[in-house]
């Protein structure tokens, strides 16, 4: 009678695990891409998603097979115990030591939260241990074996966690992390046209310029409920303006057009723009404010026509300083060095991000190189086909360029990059309904996480600006505000 009860109990435990692992493996196999995407969001195994996704399927099917065969049932139960311990330790680390808690793992546990997962795993770990004891002849040795397996399993999970975190932040294998609740939309307003751009901030309000009406400035408060309109008065208007841009650097504003070239400076208290630089040949294509009397710009070298970064310093007289070695030529020195220029006013750092390769440059306020960093994609060299037209001497791009980084902004040592490349294990359907913004700690050179900025009427992100813990984005004819929650104490 006793042996019959033991046999029934052992068979019940074995087939319970057969059902558990078979169901879990089949669920993963049916939605394999989704399973890989969920693993890719895990802070413990994301760097090894490809390998682990296949190995876990093999192990789960293998355990089920071992448990069905009477001669291998003991091995199956020991393996079940080991795997359940690893799952349990995994959840404990997620809940207590991980920088964020990802979504649940799906399958048979799809409707359970992480704490319920933990209880479920603990129960099945004890059930597996019970089955092993039922088959054991030496109880003391069995206890030592289970203790040893528990220590070993814990060590494996902790090692995976440490190695994966280092790999994701320092040597990312192009796997993005979308942390649940890291950002959410808090306000929106419809603009009167789709030609607006971010001009800057006074610390409380966001100022928008207008490419179609260059002298008109709109200011919104942080709720987008209070709107004010200003018009800039120029000291002199008889210039052939072609590309006017306004920058707000409280309490001053700057109106610039590098095609003239001309720079005005004024105070936002009266919006009167006084000439600051004109009647010279210092043409520029981009410019940003470093300090009250210093502007970083991008121009073309006269001899080579390559892009070059420089600084205008307005002291007793205008001083020009170039940094010819900052932008590195790969193909032609012009198209391949094209990119986005930003200034992080929190630490007076200049950040230049290339369009067509996975690199950004950090320089100090004197335009001296600080660091060269990489974005998480793998495009190290610009994929461009350049042709030279003999008749005009012009250079042109012969085919559609492969854009890597499209829109950037920086604030408080964080760099926000709108990437145009899909990462590994990402659902393609999301790219049809949202833009991806990757967030980096530019000081440490580490990747932090990514967020979705959803399209509006099939229009995608066009411009963005960060102030404190809010991300302002322009999407077509709409201005949205996203609240950024704390991620590793890096987003505030």
What report would you give on this structure?
- By secondary structure, the protein is an alpha+beta fold.
- Helix content is 28%, strand content 33%.
- It folds into two domains: 2-170, no CATH class; 183-484, Neuraminidase (6 Propeller).
- The chain is built from seven helices and 27 strands.
- β25 (461-467) and β26 form a beta hairpin.
- The longest helix is centred in the first third of the chain and has 32 residues, at 139-170.
Provide key terms for this protein:
Neuraminidase; 4-stranded antiparallel beta sheet; single chain; 9-stranded mixed beta sheet; alpha+beta; 2 domains; about 500 residues; elongated
SS content category: alpha+beta
Question: How much is the average pLDDT?
Answer: 87
- What general outline do the C-alpha atoms trace? elongated
Number of domains: 2
Question: Secondary-structure map with pairings?
Answer:
Elements: H1 2-30, H2 32-40, H3 49-68, H4 73-96, H5 114-135, H6 139-170, E1 183-190, E2 196-201, E3 206-210, E4 216-220, E5 227-231, E6 233-234, E7 245-249, E8 252-257, E9 262-267, E10 272-277, E11 286-291, E12 294-300, E13 307-314, E14 318-323, E15 339-344, E16 349-354, E17 359-363, E18 369-374, E19 386-389, E20 394-397, E21 405-411, E22 414-419, H7 428-431, E23 434-441, E24 446-454, E25 461-467, E26 470-475, E27 478-484
Parallel strand pairs: 2-7, 6-10
Antiparallel strand pairs: 1-27, 2-3, 3-4, 4-5, 7-8, 8-9, 9-10, 11-12, 12-13, 13-14, 15-16, 16-17, 17-18, 19-20, 21-22, 22-23, 23-24, 25-26, 26-27
Helix pairs in contact: 1-3, 1-5, 3-4, 4-5, 4-6
């Amino acid at each position: 009678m006793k042996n019959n009860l033991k046999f029934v109990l052992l068979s019940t435990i074995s087939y319970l695990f057969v059902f558990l692992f078979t169901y879990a493996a089949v669920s993963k196999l049916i939605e394999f891409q989704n399973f890989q995407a969920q693993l890719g969001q895990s802070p413990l195994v994301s760097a090894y998603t490809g390998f682990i996704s296949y190995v876990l399927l093999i192990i789960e099917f293998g355990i089920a097979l071992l448990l069905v065969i009477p001669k291998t049932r003991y091995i199956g139960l020991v393996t079940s115990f080991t795997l359940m311990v690893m799952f349990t330790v995994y959840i404990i680390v997620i809940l207590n030591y991980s920088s964020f808690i990802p979504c649940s793992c799906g399958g048979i546990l799809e409707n359970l939260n992480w704490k319920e997962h933990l209880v479920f795993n603990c129960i099945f770990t004890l059930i597996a241990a019970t089955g092993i004891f039922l088959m054991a002849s030496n109880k003391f040795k069995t206890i030592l074996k289970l203790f040893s397996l528990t220590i070993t399993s814990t060590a494996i999970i902790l090692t995976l966690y440490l190695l994966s975190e280092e790999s994701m932040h320092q040597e990312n294998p192009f796997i993005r992390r979308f942390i649940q609740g890291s950002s959410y939309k808090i306000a929106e307003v419809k603009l009167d046209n789709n030609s607006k751009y971010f001009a800057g901030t006074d610390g409380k309000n966001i100022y928008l310029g207008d490419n179609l009406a260059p002298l008109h400035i709109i200011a919104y408060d942080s709720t987008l409920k209070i709107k004010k309109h200003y018009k800039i008065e120029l000291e002199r208007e008889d210039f052939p303006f072609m590309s006017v841009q306004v920058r707000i650097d409280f309490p001053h504003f700057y109106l610039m057009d590098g095609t003239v070239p001309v720079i005005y400076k004024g105070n936002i208290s009266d919006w009167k723009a006084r000439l600051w630089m004109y009647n010279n040949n210092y043409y520029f294509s981009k410019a940003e404010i470093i300090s009250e009397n210093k502007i970083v710009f991008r121009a073309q070298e006269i001899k080579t026509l390559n892009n070059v970064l420089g600084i205008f310093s307005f002291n007793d007289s205008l001083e020009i300083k170039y940094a010819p070695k900052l932008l590195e030529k790969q193909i032609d020195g012009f198209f391949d060095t094209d990119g986005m220029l930003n200034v992080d006013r929190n630490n007076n750092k200049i950040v230049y991000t290339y369009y067509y390769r996975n690199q950004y440059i950090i320089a100090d306020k004197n335009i001296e190189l600080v660091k060269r960093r990489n974005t998480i994609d793998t495009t190290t060299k610009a994929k461009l086909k350049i042709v030279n037209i003999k008749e005009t001497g012009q250079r042109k791009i012969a085919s559609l360029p492969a854009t890597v980084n499209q829109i950037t902004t920086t604030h408080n040592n964080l760099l926000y990059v709108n990437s145009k490349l899909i990462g590994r294990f990402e659902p393609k359907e999301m790219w049809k309904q949202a833009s991806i913004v990757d967030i980096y700690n530019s000081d440490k050179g580490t990747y932090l996480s990514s967020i979705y900025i959803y399209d509006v009427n099939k229009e995608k992100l066009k411009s963005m600006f960060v102030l404190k813990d809010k991300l302002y984005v322009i999407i077509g004819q709409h201005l949205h505000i996203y609240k950024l929650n704390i991620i590793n104490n890096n987003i505030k």
